[in-house]
Write a structure and sequence with these properties.
Chain lengths: 450, 386
């Protein structure tokens, strides 16, 4: 394919000397990216010979002209390129050394597509605060065109003050300042800026969206909440708990989930642990299945908080997959994780707050069993579907179905609330009650009992 | 009391669910995109489907894009040319769903430019008549006469006589040599990437939940001005005109900062330079007038708005928030006029943005490469890990 392409190209060039092509023709591009650290400089050079200068460049590399570029010839050419570069720091010559180099195939170079890559490094003497670094490149045998740029220093103690170049970019000069560690510590406004950054961070919104759209996370939590207002007796879900106990239990579940996912999210986002995402996705589907089964028959009665905490650990790992490249410094990362986590919490609270009143109201009536069994059944089916999908890479319409429902979350939540009011007003209260002191019944004592 | 309790609960629930559903609504578009992707994939044979599918974290396939013709740098996936009409229609439908109408038009014009290049080469007769027939060469070009590079007496003039073998030109250029590929399975929840590209085009679209990320994306054109059906087409014309208007709106001291004293012969952060961040130069947007700032965002919109409205809006919000830390640099003549392509290079750079517009030396006003990146979020790595 490529050989044919080259043939076409050469034919084109012969037929019509002015016929330009989609790439470099008669230029030899030398593109350099410099990376500055407190005591060292790394240079990474890309050399791209245009198609009309390629054979000349190859001849320079293939010193013995045997049509093969040997490792020795590669090294020698890389050194030759490096020798054409002179670097000074504050007027003193800086020694450079080759780090690595790679050469394309001769065919690629003939096509004008080859990229020679050369990496070098230089030690920079320390001492002093203000520095001027100068990098000057001299022409090789062929005429070069240049690009030279500095990457943003990762080390925040380095501040780039100004850059200057000649019109060809073959001479490049940068002024920079090296702040001492002590100077950094006195940066008092940093903490304030940091705190402000958290609230306005796009990561906060990302966290919110992640919960709002991560239907599997939501389904897990909601399913776990379903039996929360009930008491398990003899491996069956029995009477309801007092509203206060229910609230405490729900609070416990949500908090446990938060603690669980915060731990793993932080560990994973700080790169302490790394778990591939596929098994996590499967485990999340399983977690929904477990909480659905639990909502049907109390397999772990009274242990909802522990389930929430345990699976929270797994959901946290999934949250972490959404986060990467939070920032360069540790502080940025910590602030980013905090923002993201707060966003998750905020959205979780909103959803729980939207559903909680309905659950509490409805749990007082017999209709609650229907809701619990229906909800848990749906969650179980969805979870089974997801598990199969993710385990065997199948294509099932689970996402479509759940998302279609999620899109009508507003109507479902409103409907549920209206239904719960209706149940409260019309249906008999399920006997027996464990505790008579209830927040809700106090508030609504006058009209609720039929 | 009870009534008021119920009323307040109802109001609270309504308010909260409105907020909640607002977040959920955003997913509608992703579901549509996934639907269109699944429909396209369903038209493929098992063999084709395997060919277009890559692992989400396939680094090689992620980076397998270029400004070069596909004959030189083979892309992954399958090309429009290798598709049946039904498959092609589904592929275009998918593009129309994930891209904005403007984005789709840009993509089509870049492809049409390649048809024109195939027919006429790069030598433009002054005001020469249009290039290839609309819609490019017939889908199955086996039977028809080969277009050839130098059509005798063609507007290209002087570019050789007689047709070349059809395989060579057909394998190198043309609006059907654009490839589609998928990294990961289309999903409304787990992240995946849609790639579409060929000569002078590389769209890398990462979809993660409701978020759509277009970075890195390369657009380019040669010819950058051509006529088709009697109309002048400039695939990247607004990118040129809007930037020229901004640089011409600068006062002397602003211009002194914005216009660099050195030549920039090519893209600095082109193909292969993923995730790199260079020290910005030029004029800081914080020193621009509100009107100039709006013009700057208007240039950026030529890239952000390639994606559908849903994804473009949140991206533009991010870039607007970064405006104070955004830079505009220009290299080359500032005295052009709207309607003809600039020969100058420019770069727009912010904390989450790199845009470069680089005229190529062989034919500066008629051959351009551009790159659009978010060094913190190329291939959506800011949203996803792996």
């Amino acid at each position: 394919m490529r050989a044919r392409g080259a043939a076409v190209l050469i034919a084109l060039l012969l037929l019509s000397p002015g016929l330009a092509f989609a790439h470099r023709i008669d230029e030899y591009l030398q593109a350099t990216l410099l990376t500055l650290e407190p005591h060292s400089l790394q240079g990474s050079i890309r050399l791209v010979p245009g198609v009309l200068v390629a054979s000349d460049v190859i001849a320079s590399i293939d010193a013995n002209g045997d049509g093969v570029i040997s490792p020795e010839e590669q090294r020698a050419y890389a050194q030759q390129v490096l020798n054409s570069i002179s670097i000074t720091l504050d007027g003193r010559v800086v020694e450079t050394k080759l780090v690595s180099w790679s050469f394309p195939s001769l065919g690629q170079m003939h096509d004008g597509l080859g990229e020679i890559k050369i990496n070098y490094s230089a030690a920079l003497s320390d001492g002093g605060r203000d520095h001027v670094l100068l990098v000057a490149t001299h022409n090789l045998r062929q005429k070069l065109v240049y690009l030279i740029n500095l990457t943003v220093p990762e080390d925040r103690s380095l501040e780039i003050l100004s850059q200057r170049r000649n019109p060809e970019q073959s001479v490049y000069e940068v002024d920079y300042e090296e702040k001492t560690a002590a100077a950094g510590a006195h940066d008092t406004t940093g903490a304030v800026v940091w705190l402000e950054g958290i609230q306005f961070s796009p990561l906060f919104h990302l966290g919110m969206r992640h919960i709002a759209e991560g239907t599997d996370h939501l389904l897990f939590l909601l399913t776990l909440l379903l039996p929360a207002p009930l008491l398990a007796i003899n491996h069956r879900w029995g009477p309801k708990l007092a509203a206060r106990s229910s609230m405490l239990r729900i609070l416990g579940i949500v908090t446990a989930f938060t603690i669980g996912h915060s731990i793993t999210l932080t560990l994973a986002a700080m790169n302490v642990i790394h778990v591939p995402s596929h098994p996590i996705e499967v485990l999340i589907a399983v977690s929904i299945l477990v909480s659905a089964v639990h909502a049907l028959w109390p397999i772990l009665p009274g242990r909802e908080a522990w389930i929430a905490a345990f699976f929270g650990l797994i959901h946290g790992l999934a949250f972490a997959t959404t986060l990467d490249r939070l920032g360069v410094s540790h502080w940025e990362r910590v602030a980013g994780i905090l923002s993201f986590n707060l966003g998750i919490e905020a959205m979780q609270m909103i959803v729980v707050a939207a559903i909680l009143p309905s659950l509490l109201l409805m749990s007082r009536s017999r209709a609650y069993s229907a809701l619990r069994i229906g909800g848990a059944g749906f969650a179980a089916l969805a979870a089974l579907g997801w598990t199969l999908e993710r385990l065997f890479d199948l294509q099932l319409p689970v996402d479509d179905l759940v998302n279609a429902l999620a899109r009508h979350a507003l109507w479902i939540a409103t409907g549920l609330f209206l239904l719960s009011l209706l149940c409260r007003a019309l249906l008999p209260v399920s006997p027996p009650r464990i505790q008579r002191v209830e927040v809700l019944s106090e508030l609504s004592a006058a009209s609720t009992l039929p | 009391m009870i009534n008021s309790f119920r009323r307040w609960t109802a109001i609270a629930v309504l308010a909260l669910t409105v907020v909640f559903s607002g977040f959920v609504q955003a997913q509608t578009t992703t579901a549509e995109v996934v639907n269109a992707a699944d429909k396209f994939l369903a038209t493929l044979s098992a063999e084709q489907r395997q060919k277009v599918s890559y692992a989400f974290d396939d680094e090689q396939q992620r980076a397998r894009w270029s400004n070069l013709p596909t004959g030189f740098v083979p892309r992954g996936g399958i090309s429009l040319k290798q598709m049946t009409p039904v498959q092609r229609e589904a592929a275009i439908k998918l593009l129309a769903t994930v891209l904005s109408p403007m984005g789709l038009q840009k993509v089509n014009e870049i492809r049409e430019a390649d048809d024109d290049f195939k027919a006429n080469g790069s030598r433009r007769g002054p005001g020469g008549p249009g290039g290839p027939p609309p819609g490019g060469p017939p889908p199955n070009a086996q039977g028809g006469p080969p277009p050839g590079f130098g059509r005798p007496g063609g507007p290209g003039g002087g570019a050789g006589q007689g047709g070349r073998p059809s395989f060579s030109s057909d394998e190198m250029f043309g609006s059907n040599l654009y490839y589609i590929s998928f990294l990961g399975k289309p999903s409304t929840t787990t992240p995946w990437i849609l790639q579409f590209g060929g000569h002078h085009l590389a769209l890398n679209i990462t979809i993660a939940g409701s978020r759509g990320v277009l970075t890195p994306t390369l657009t380019g054109a040669q010819p950058a001005t051509f006529s088709l059906d009697g109309k002048t087409v400039r695939p990247l014309g607004r990118e040129s005109d809007k930037a020229l208007a901004l640089v011409q709106s600068l006062n002397d001291s602003q211009r002194k900062q914005a216009v660099l004293n050195y030549q920039v012969p090519d893209l600095v952060l082109g193909p292969g330079q993923d995730g790199k961040k260079i020290v910005p130069e030029g004029l800081k947007a914080s020193t621009m007038t509100p009107q100039q700032q709006a013009m700057l965002l208007g240039i950026v919109a030529e890239w952000t708005d390639i994606l559908n409205e849903n994804a473009a809006a949140s991206r533009m919000a991010q870039i607007t928030a970064d405006l104070k830390e955004t830079w505009f640099a220009w290299s080359g003549p500032t005295d052009g006029k709207a309607g003809s392509n600039i020969t100058a290079y420019y770069r727009i750079q912010g904390p989450h943005l790199v845009i470069e517009y680089a005229p190529q030396h062989d034919e500066p006003a008629n051959h351009v490469h551009t790159i659009y990146r978010d060094p913190t979020n190329d291939y959506g790595t800011g949203l996803t890990r792996q």
